[in-house]
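Reopening this one. Same input as before:
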Amino acid sequence: MVHKRTKGSHEIWDYPDESKLDRPVVFRGDEKEIPPSHIRTNLNTLGLSSKEFDERVRKL
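Same output, byte for byte:
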């Protein structure tokens, strides 16, 4: 994924060719806590369950 732009405190990320996601992943780039609803929305956009996300993060 690549950083596409920043609008206010929100960073917009997408695949370079923009062909894999229906919409980009958005999150706050500042030091604020990310609301659970934003996490769920972004996981849904990526097509991942929270369990799949946890498994991928543990591999890093």
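So the earlier flakiness isn't reproducible anymore. For the record, The chain has one domain: 2-59.
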